[in-house]
Amino acid sequence: MAIVKEAYKALEAIVGSKYISDDPAICEGYRSGPGGYESGLGYERVMTKIPAAVTLPRNTEEVQRIVKVCNRYKVPYVPYSTGFYGPRSHCHVENELLVDLKRLNDFEIDEKHFYAVVGSGVIYSPLQEEAMKRGAYVIIGGGGAQASVIANLIGDGWSPLSHRIGLPHRRILGTEVVLPDGELLKLGTLAVGEDPFWGDGIGPDLRGLLRGYTGLRGCLGIVTKMAVKLLPFQPERLVPTGISPNTALALPEKRVKWVNYQMPSKEAQVKAMFEIGKAEVGGAVTKVPLFWRAIAKAESKEEFWQIWGKENADTIKNFHIVRVLFIGFTSEEQMQYDENVIGDIMKELGAVTRPTKPSDESWIKNADSAGMWLMCGSYVSVDYVIETLSQAVVHGESYADLKRKYTPPLMPDYGDPGWFQSFELGHQGYSEFLIYWDQDEDTTGVDHFYLETSKMNIKNRYYTSLLGPHQPLYLTGPKYGPNYHEWLLKIKDEFDPLWVCHPPVPLAHDAFVEKADWMKPVKDWKSPEVLKKVPI
Amino acid sequence: MPKKQVSLDVRQLDNFVYDMSRCIKCKGCYWVEHTYMPGVNFSTRCPSNTWNDFDSYGAFGKMRIGMAVAEGRLPWTPKLLEIIYADPLCGACDVGCKRNLDLEIELSLEALRVKAVKDGAGPMPAHKKVAENIAKTHNQFGSPHQNRKKWVTGDIQVAAKADALYFVGCSASYLNPEIAQATAKTLNASGTPFMLMPDEWCCGNTLYSVGMVDEAQALARRNVDAVKATGAKTVILSCAEGYRMWKTDYPKMLDVATRDLGFQVMHLVEFADAMVKKGTLKPTKPVNARVAYHDSCSIGRLADSWIPWKGERGWMGTVSPPLKRRRGTEGLYAEPRNILKAIPGLNFVEMPRTRENAFCCGAGRGTKEAFPQLASFSAKHRLDEVKSVGAELLVSACPWCKNNFALAAKETGNPVKVMDISELILASV
Lengths: 536, 429
What we know:
The complex is a heterodimer of chains A (536) and B (429).
Chain A: H1 5-15, E1 20-21, H2 24-28, H3 42-47, E2 53-55, H4 60-73, E3 77-80, E4 97-100, E5 107-110, E6 115-119, H5 124-133, E7 136-137, H6 149-153, E8 172-178, E9 184-187, E10 222-229, E11 231-232, E12 239-241, E13 248-250, E14 256-263, H7 266-278, E15 284-287, H8 290-297, H9 301-308, H10 313-317, E16 320-327, H11 332-349, E17 352-354, E18 359-360, E19 378-387, H12 389-405, E20 419-423, E21 428-437, H13 444-460, H14 473-476, H15 484-495, H16 508-515
Parallel strand pairs in A: 2-4, 3-4
Antiparallel strand pairs in A: 1-2, 5-6, 6-10, 7-11, 8-9, 8-10, 12-13, 13-18, 14-16, 14-17, 15-16, 15-20, 19-21, 20-21
Helix pairs in contact in A: 1-4, 7-11, 8-9, 12-13
Chain B: E1 4-7, H1 17-21, H2 47-51, H3 59-70, H4 78-85, H5 92-97, H6 105-118, H7 125-137, E2 164-167, H8 169-175, H9 177-189, E3 194-196, H10 205-209, H11 213-230, E4 234-237, H12 240-254, E5 264-267, H13 268-278, E6 289-293, E7 310-313, E8 319-320, H14 334-342, E9 346-349, H15 367-370, H16 372-388, E10 393-396, H17 399-412, E11 417-420, H18 421-428
Parallel strand pairs in B: 2-3, 2-4, 4-5, 6-9, 6-10, 10-11
Antiparallel strand pairs in B: 1-7, 7-8
């Protein structure tokens, strides 16, 4: 495997010999699997390759020049910020260049106007710490505190704290994007000057190139710089305590605290979230999968299974927690007001307040996504849905039903309908369904389940985020649109006529199904002719 | 899936295939633990991957490389050896990973080096020279063996027989007599009689660390037997690397539990902290300085006791019998801080990265010998952190750290003074 010598030399001239390598040992370090998000599944095994070369640019200009060289020599390339998002953010074709963006780590903060400008290599926890030093905060997405801020904001970007501020789009301000051909696109007010304060530019607005719902996995260019909105927080310090693995932020209880309420029924759980949102109180309102509680309690994988093994379908069915984060954004009195209001709501609904520690183990600064791999060693979220609170419950139950058919190889979760919560003060309900398995087992069932979720969504007319680069485009496209697949491919052709930017995304899952014999039994749609033309 | 027999034996890389295959690239091995993340500066804790940005230099890259080596897909090359050996094995990756997962990262890295040696590819030439020195002169510098006790001055009382045995180590014996002397005088000042090994040899830290496990095991057996022959109840060390060898790696190589060694292993900071609390060691002389403390890896996150384990891995990767993971929770974090805070006049200041998040000085475990540029980078990076808190004196609890920091300070013209904690204790009693 190699990229053409002339191209390599041209790239070396841009970044210097220290920041490019085609050594096999260097390239092996950029392998997607065998572990990680969605790894150990067919998609990872069939669709990912190790890069032929890796380069580490320092700034936007270098990225532009690299991309232009790739276009000149028809070298496929993939942008890579941290590599945490699993196979879909790794090389998919032979002789591909991996553009590792970790050196784009410039960071500026505008304290007066409450925004930070970050490069692609900046992750969440340093941004959160810098924000909190200045009385501000950001929402650390479920991807984790180790996720690239930019990658997360153009992909997912939500957490329980999205109760107050929901979808990430509005937190994306002035942004620089290197288009697939190397042209620099500036979004928002960066398009007309140096001030990135506004996400809205003078138009037309091309922010759709960044994400749509959950992003395009790097197939429409490289975001190199982004101004991110900071939100006002309370002023008291959250003090880190403990020795790893038992670390947490000690919370100033009159300004920040978590409270768990045990609800008498699922209906009461949803009603509580709705009423809390309606009253416009609380900093986060969420229900999390019950096995997350077992993860939090367990000190090892084996202990997790001891704890979780005591549960059954009945205990799960009748256990309804609403977890609320109180934040005294403006004052202690404001937080007391929130507590009183929520206390009244909970009393009316017959909730029981459960004791909680005055600390934050996850979500405010350390979104603890890595713990998802403790139980089984393999994990992926198969869907993110943002509709209404009541719809989130229905959606979760449908997933649980489908999942039963595929358990095993999926982890037994006794019908837990996943994670759901309030967004935008209850105007939206967020649902996420997570699955776990052991990748050393036969994973055919997991591959089938992943795809069957799309069919379930189509059949039940559920809206879903995992379209485009996450599922077969020609399975979902005709049903959601009805022509979004054609529209997406036209955009891809327009901006990336050579298909050098992370091919064959957004047709990668279509390609996977074509290449994997074991997927044939679940393939009941027509593959596109275009698959024959794109690099696979 | 049939159950698989596994153990923690680093002689077999296969024992760690599960661990390597389950790395998820969360980079908990690389970043400071997020709860303690100090901001955009000083945000990493992996010296190797901070020194070289390619993923292969981080544990997440090395786990993938380890899989390729285990499966015979990647031949040994100079670049591969650099990736494997340009690494102080400081344990930051191990505790970082084990905050959430049950993966044996440190042991996987050690096993990779053992395999490199077994395959005839490793260790690095500089390590082979150290091994030669140890074989010939019983110390890693090749200094004359008869000079080992030259540090003992007339004002130090060494007992012929005592419950406590001070194992001095190569560095303090030959390069840093001031540390050996300060430690001995501190023991004297506390009224604790101590003896020395009748014939002290190298602890074998570099040998074990670079994968020369057979040679290291022979030294471990020899040294443990020699201590047992003295009847000592406690072995005291002033060297962090030596402490880790005696407490963890000797039992590991000899397949016994630390508690079953037959004697207790203590670092000076444990001993001195206990003596200060007891009142037999009284720091009364003021040390008027703004002082930062550097947590040496081998008395911190690498300091957990060893418990032999072998068993089987089955459903969902669970193991039986139960395995208590070494997560770095036995680290000597409070003890040195207690001592420093007990010294009158001393203005103690914490750096942004402390305890299990500390940034390694970069000297240990064969790095300084084979990759001095990495050791130098690491120390200078840490000195920037010292500067950021305005400390005028940097204290550590290991001669390797002291020497590496002192050299880096000299090279950069940094006025910070570097001392071992034994010297500071002595200065105040």
